Amino acid sequence: MADASTTIELDRAELREVTGFTVACARPSLALFERERPGDRRPRAAIEAALAFADGAERTKAIRDNAWAAHRAAQETRDAGRGAARAAARAAARAAARAAANTCGAAFLHPLAKATQVKHILASAAYTAHALELSSGDGPDAADDHLARLGLLATPVVVDVLGRYPDAPPGGGRIGELVRRLDASLRQSPPVR
């Protein structure tokens, strides 16, 4: 585990892999958002932009623009009292934000080994899990089910990148709790491929 004074190496292939993971984590939330706001494609566009980067496209301003648009969709659903849709839009925004980061550390995932950076890797998963628990009658069980499935999605590269950072930080309410649970789970039982 790294400490706060350590810089870490992140190459473009690793960033693409992490972005692909964040997209896979956020995708299940799209149906929840689109059920509440069927004509609003902003979260879907953010996920599609992030996926394009994960699949090999270059980063463009469009990725960041789509991340901000999904964030605005989250604000609007919050204002409308739609908690699950808000969490779903935030999941999409976080996936695109992950793609917008660059290899020298600007934007969101920095090559500094600080615990706060773990949220940039796992927030799309936490927001999706939260959206699922808010929208289902199962409550926390829905979040648990989603987090359990993510262990299958995390590739060795994702777990390796995550392991370069300190454990997820305290605080952050329910999202912070979900980030810490997923972080601990991925670090305890890395995927075998």
Secondary-structure class: mainly alpha
Number of strands: 0
Q: Give helix and strand order, one letter per element, not per position.
A: HHHHHHHHH
What is the terminal separation in angstroms? 22 Å
Q: Assign an overall shape.
A: globular
Count every helix, treating DSSP H or I runs of 4 or more residues as helices: 9
Helix content: 55-70%
| Largest β-sheet summary | none
Report Rg: 15 Å
| Integer average pLDDT | 85
Beta-strand content bin: under 5%
Runs in which pLDDT lies below 50 for 5 or more consecutive residues are 102-108
Explain this structure.
Keywords: Exonuclease, Hydrolase, Nuclease. InterPro entries: Imm5-like. The structure is a single chain. The protein is mainly alpha-helical. Helix content is 68%, strand content 0%. It has helices at 12-26, 29-36, 42-54, 61-79, 83-100, 116-135, 140-153, 156-163, 173-188. The longest helix has 20 residues, at 116-135. It is globular. The two termini are 22 Å apart. The relative contact order is 0.16.
